[in-house]
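Minutes, methods subgroup
Present: GH (chair), OT, SY

1. OT presented the first of two proteins processed in the latest run. Sequence and structure tokens recorded below as shown on screen.
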Amino acid sequence: MQATAHRFGEWILASLTSGIVAIDGDGRLVTLNAGAQRILGCSNAESAAVLGRDCREALRAQPSVARLLLDTLDGRSPLSRAELVLDGDAEQLASTIGFTLAPVRDGDGNLLGRVVIL
């Protein structure tokens, strides 16, 4: 039953149109769902290859997202809901999106990482 519950959680993340990006306490990318891939402009193959890497490297095309996650992990930014200008290039214009930022805590309240919902 536990394996099914875990898979169900994966299916929920994959089904959401909202983007979910999460890092662990060391700043490594843990989650980048299909919604985040679409919003941030990366493919499924790219996202699978970057899981477990430092988020600055993994989110190189969107440094503002990596900076947001890392700054809040260090406690420098108390933001929870706001807007963020995504980085764009000549082919893709920069766009402004809303986001919600939250800490990821274990059952004892220990900070494990951060998650941003786009």
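2. SY then presented the second protein from the same run.
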Amino acid sequence: MSGSGRTFLLLAGAGSIAASVAHLACIIGGPDWFRAMGAGERMARMVERGAVMPLILTVIIAAILATWAAYAFSAAGLIGRLPLMRVALIAIAAVLLIRGVVGFTPVFLPIPSIAFKFWSAAICLVMGACFALGTWQAWANLSNEGSH
């Protein structure tokens, strides 16, 4: 595929990969990295105590983000076609856009850091916009079982 949303889809995929790697880096970096990335003091203390739940949750989030990257790269024609392409891309864009908008509201999750709330919401909005615009522009190329 050339044009037709490819740039936005490539940006969406790159952003998703970067976010996935950042999550995995927290596991390697330990509690201080969890703090620096905005996971909160409670999560960092759980990591310090050797609790496995923060690590499991972080791996799950990283895997979801990597899957989102795969869908963006598939829609851009970099890798083979994945199932339910249109549905997946719409769902991914919706989740990111909703997370971004809700992240700017004062009721969003009990995250203590205003800076983290702002930056994570902004990043989600940008990534959601890339998924949405790329999907919209590439819509005709994403039909059923046809090739890119």
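Chair's summary of item 2: The chain has a mean pLDDT of 90.
Next meeting: continue with the remaining queue.
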